[in-house]
Design a protein that fits this description.
Shape: flat
Structural class: mainly alpha
Oligomer: single chain
Order of helices and strands: HHHHHH
Number of strands: 0
Number of helices: 6
Strand content: under 5%
Amino acid sequence: MMQQPGFCGFYVILIVSSIHPLREVENLKKPFSPPREGWAEQNLLTLLKPVEKSWQPQDFLPDPASDGFHDQVNELRERAKELPDDYFVVLVGDMITEEALPTYQTMLNTLDGVRDETGASPTSWAIWNRAWTAEENRHGDLLNKYLYLSG
């Protein structure tokens, strides 16, 4: 049974079929097999910083506890006024992508060899997945707060 294309895939097929006639193609999809645990430990975990050294969204935003908070927000808004609207469209799109992060992690957790069923698995792939998720979550938090503060 042939799998139906997703929403985006449907439009890609329409565009391609308007250029090239449709023809039967061999299904080249192969099962995903992540590199071995040792590879992940040697090549991925070495890239991770300790949690206490990871950047945080507030490192790049005005500090609400500071006396100059309102001035800093006004300055941020003045600088943001200079950005073209197209940039804000991209920032909103990026933020929406980051908001979908739980979907990405859930998908990764379905794959053999990468799965982290407990949320605290000591395997290299599980550690990497959690660290990657935390990093991406910080991106989303920063974009959300920047867009909120920039008005």
